[in-house]
């Protein structure tokens, strides 16, 4: 079912905006870019926001530089100009932009902090990536660093710094060490969240502005629910 665009615009949380960029706190369930579901993507909602805010006639330019999985929440940055988009794409492609995530997991990791290295093989039909200890055919190396931030009543809060950007990387790698993310049925959590979300949040994004060449740090608020509330 498509959301009403106007009501969605009202709830849009803008984290940063300048002449070239706009960063949004994506809600779980929103899709960043259009897909086969036909649901209104976040990119179109942001275009509508810009069109109304600046009273723009005609089409609004907006470039998608990176994505978050639909059930994931957190910071997403878009390019407002054709000058910024290729430079922003390059920052993400070359891993210059630093992404920090928070994840609520079922079990504690083997150490309070560490690095995980796996080889991920994607199965497009199942829209799932499988983590292997050693390289296998058609797999890609995946590396992340994690540390435990907090022990909750029933769960554990981890902070994750991505070193590579693979399909479902955090979800797959954490599941591989016995730490499935809360609500993530696809990767081994025992039940889904009622709203279809998973407790994975893109908490921070830092990079050098593609046009102004200034350092940018964007931090996004956590979704409102009892488990996330207990994390701060």
- The average pLDDT score comes to 93
Distance between the termini: 33 Å
Query: How is the main sheet built?
Result: 11 strands, mixed
Q: Report Rg.
A: 18 Å
- Which structural class do you get from the secondary structure elements? alpha+beta
Please, how many helices? 5
The poorly predicted ranges are none
Indicate the overall shape: globular
The ordered H/E elements are HEEHEEHEEEEEHEEH
**Helical residue percent band:** 10-25%
Taken as a percent bin, the fraction of beta residues is: 25-35%
Number of strands: 11
Quick recap:
This protein is α+β, with helices and mostly antiparallel strands. It is 17% helix and 33% strand.
